[in-house]
Amino acid sequence: MTTSLDHIRNFSIIAHIDHGKSTLADRLIQSTGGLESREMVEQVLDSMDIERERGITIKAQTVRLTYKAKDGETYILNLMDTPGHVDFAYEVSRSLAACEGSLLVVDASQGVEAQTLANVYQAIDNHHEIVPILNKVDLPAADVDRVKEQIEEVIGIDASNAVAISAKTGLGIPDVLEAIVTRLPPPKGDAAAPLKAMLVDSWYDAYLGVVVLVRVVDGIMKKGQKIRMMEAGATYEIERMGVFTPKMTELAELGPGDIGFINASIKEVADTRVGDTITDERKPCAQALPGFRPTQPVVFCGLFPVDAADFEDLRTAVGKLRLNDASFTYEMETSAALGFGFRCGFLGLLHLEIVQERLEREFNLDLIATSPSVVYKILLRDGSILEMHNPVDMPDVTKIEEIEEPWIRATIMTPDDYLGSVLKLCQDKRGTQVDLSYAGTRALVVYDLPLNEVVFDFYDRLKSVSKGYASFDYHITDYVASDLVRLQILVNSEPVDALSMLVHRTRAEARGRAICEKLKDVIPPHMFQIPIQAAIGGKIVARETIRALRKDVTAKCYGGDATRKRKLLDKQKAGKKRMRQFGKVEIPQDAFIQVLKVES
Amino acid sequence: MSAGEPGFGVYIHWPFCASKCPYCDFNSHVRLTPIDQARYARALVAELTHDAARTPGRTVSSIFFGGGTPSLMEPETVATVLDAIGGLWSVDRNVEVSLEANPSSVDAARFTGYRAAGVNRVSLGVQALNDRDLKRLGRLHDVAEALDAIRLARATFPRMSFDMIYARPDQTVADWRAELKTAVDLAADHLSVYQLTIEEETRFADLHRAGKLIVPDMDAAADLWDATHDVLDAAGLRAYEISNHAAPGAECRHNLVYWRYGEYVGVGAGAHGRLALAEGRRATADEKNPEAWLRAVESRGHARVADDLLTFEEQGDEYLLMGLRLDEGIDLDRWEVISGRVLDPARLADLVHHGMVEVVIDENGRRRVRATPGGFVVLDAVVADLAA
């Protein structure tokens, strides 16, 4: 039995990181009885360890809540939880497409942030009804009126009916549930029409195989039904279907407006295309849904096993991870220093860090990540164009006519106290100011910036110069010709290819100096002195020296307790395994990510 | 000293102290109520009996009472244990029987009793020869008591040694040289000289973390190390081990059992042993809590919390760790047999190239790897390199 449309509400929650989205979702699940309190853990929907630890949402999640409203009727509320970070903006867009309304959560003590802005505009583009929610109103720093004013000024939506809540204490949660029912529109659809459903997401589950998240628009989806993926042209039979409550709960059918999952003996996630239209094989619908634009990786880096013998394990691991994360791409790469590995593409630096962490944790691998690079377009003198993902592939300079690099348009919101530092940072990163406006005490800055400066350390530095208050969102705009040079790093007089990078000529020397200084800190002293140099072409532009180890010996041996010493040695040996031998020098794997965080 | 046989040692741990020193992370416990020593002695004998059954036919070459503070043991307790060892194994005519003692007057009063029980070597925890530092190190004795204890020990026992700690807060090279020269004048033919290290879960570790205890940095520590070796070499007390200095022939035989990776039984709370049995080398460890240890021995005859067969790799690592601490180094042929592998020739060559180790043939025609003076001071890095 499917629920009638006017008793369904599909909504997503839009919020900046830390504004309380996951806590609000937890409260909604709890107060509608989705889970017993003993089953509740914090951030229920963030099922990955990394999500809970970092307090972020990476994968969009969905949960079906059953709510008895004040009008006495029982409603099905489908909540799509969405990631807040700019790297995962594409996840947001498909979640929004599956819903009719959004809750816009704004921290009443912080105000609107850049990512909120980007996501809320997407929601408006999707014709969403938007209910503003002011969270953390119990905090002393909360300023409800000011933030309402800001929502109206900056976003341009009516905030007079904003719901004031504290997700932490539970204050106002019943009002949120009522607002969802009374203020958000029910989905439209025709149960009698041929099946038309949107493929919202898919992932690989170790027990169930490929799980597909769908939003039914028209018709009824039934167990045993033969379905067709219209764009992919593949047909499958539905073996199992249901909803998340948030526990996986099987149902016999899904009707218009429903959001649920299906299993259909699909071998690989690659066979499922996000945004594809699912229809009935025997009675197909006439027209497919518009679909989504596929995502493009914008940041590339090499991932290599610390222990070369683990390459096959890494190959299996990237393959499996890709089943779950279609936005991540990989191809085999060889490096003189690092051996066999993969050149991988990511949506951003956070995505890179998360993929690396998942590979290490879920597949028990030790990895080295090389300097991230953007995709450069190199115009050669022979008229051809090379798309370069890896600075190691840079052709001889005499063959190059011109190098183009991607630029982004960045939207930054910051309290005006930090505006000066934020502008200086953008200027330092070769940025061009496009716009600057104010909403109360917050400034909205729009800048055009080269992406290669942003992947480097922009986000970390933005957080640091604004004490964490500035927020940031971006999209790629254009490729622009630029005076870029390849910076090489030499350790003990040998170039380390994995540390080479393309840098703007005006920044190369400072960057080289900063990297040498950083490496001096992260490479432990050896039994001999180690020179570290940065070079452009053949010219050394910076140099540091790591002094030789002078004393490193355990004074006291604990009677016959050789076990204790051996365990320390085991740790040292494990540490050494996490280092890479470059000539005679051992470089810790985190050196490769540390050099990206240098300030220059 | 020639590279002799490791021998067979017996270690007895006495886990009690009158107070806990702020730098010490050994298994030591302070008890306010009197210890029933007769009961502990029975338990030690029971555990020795248990181990003796596993190691028949051995001849004991050394016995060592460590702690804690073994000089809190009544001489009768020591005698009971020594008598039991004599009944359980055959004992070498020249057996070395060492006991660690605190140089306080109360402990020194028992020296004659220990000698009568069969102890022939004491090792005194002098640690410093100035009262300010003794206080800082949490020691209960002062310099005057230490001097008395040293004199009494030299008069009572055929052999004696004492411990010093350096790299103390604010210690200069000149101060240390002067203090060490005094120590040399007081010493017989053996001195143990340890660098103060900050161990986890000690009071010094807390102070260090809080920035209230500053210890010399790597360069200062290296300078102090150099001074130590200068002064003691000049006095004829060669460093036969990282922290142990002796005139030729005066080395502590019991510690040589460990460093030569020999066989030893360890009894008492928190004690460790290494047994060379038919099935392979076993690592034993005892329950650390004294009362729990006692109950376990009384109910089961032993208080083992670990009795593990070591893998080849573990044995190889242990021999490297222990053996390279000695200036005689390791017997490479024996190491290969024990570990079932060969040392990575490239790494070895690299270390030789950097002057950290040397490969020599000893008088018995065996290949030995030993650390050079330059390698000694960075031995942890050298061992990690060889073991990796």
From TrEMBL, chain A:
Keywords: Cell membrane, Elongation factor, GTP-binding, Hydrolase, Membrane, Nucleotide-binding, Protein biosynthesis. InterPro entries: EF-4, EFG_III/V, EFG_V-like, EFTu-like_2, G_TR_CS, LepA_C_sf, LepA_CTD, LepA_IV. The keyword Cell membrane applies. It comes from Siculibacillus lacustris. It is found in: Cell membrane. Coiled coil: none annotated. It catalyses: GTP + H2O = GDP + phosphate + H(+). Signal peptide: none annotated. Belongs to the GTP-binding elongation factor family. LepA subfamily. It is an enzyme of class 3 (hydrolase). It is a peripheral membrane protein. Residues 6-188 form the Tr-type G domain. GO terms for molecular function: GTP binding; GTPase activity; guanosine tetraphosphate binding; ribosome binding; translation elongation factor activity. Its EC number is 3.6.5.n1. One of its GO terms (cellular component) is plasma membrane. This is Elongation factor 4.
UniProtKB/TrEMBL annotation, chain B:
It is found in: Cytoplasm. GO terms for cellular component: cytoplasm. GO terms for molecular function: 4 iron, 4 sulfur cluster binding; coproporphyrinogen oxidase activity; metal ion binding. Signal peptide: none annotated. CDD domains: Radical_SAM. Residues 2-238 form the Radical SAM core domain. It holds the Pfam family Radical_SAM. It comes from the Bacteria. The keyword rRNA processing does not apply. Its main location: cytoplasm. InterPro entries: Coproporphyrinogen-III_oxidase (IPR034505), Elp3/MiaA/NifB-like_rSAM (IPR006638), HemW-like (IPR004559), rSAM (IPR007197), rSAM_sf (IPR058240). Keywords: 4Fe-4S, Chaperone, Cytoplasm, Heme, Iron, Iron-sulfur, Metal-binding, S-adenosyl-L-methionine. One of its GO terms (biological process) is porphyrin-containing compound biosynthetic process. Coiled coil: none annotated. Probably acts as a heme chaperone, transferring heme to an unknown acceptor. Binds one molecule of heme per monomer, possibly covalently. Binds 1 [4Fe-4S] cluster. The cluster is coordinated with 3 cysteines and an exchangeable S-adenosyl-L-methionine. Belongs to the anaerobic coproporphyrinogen-III oxidase family. HemW subfamily. This is Heme chaperone HemW. It comes from Siculibacillus lacustris.
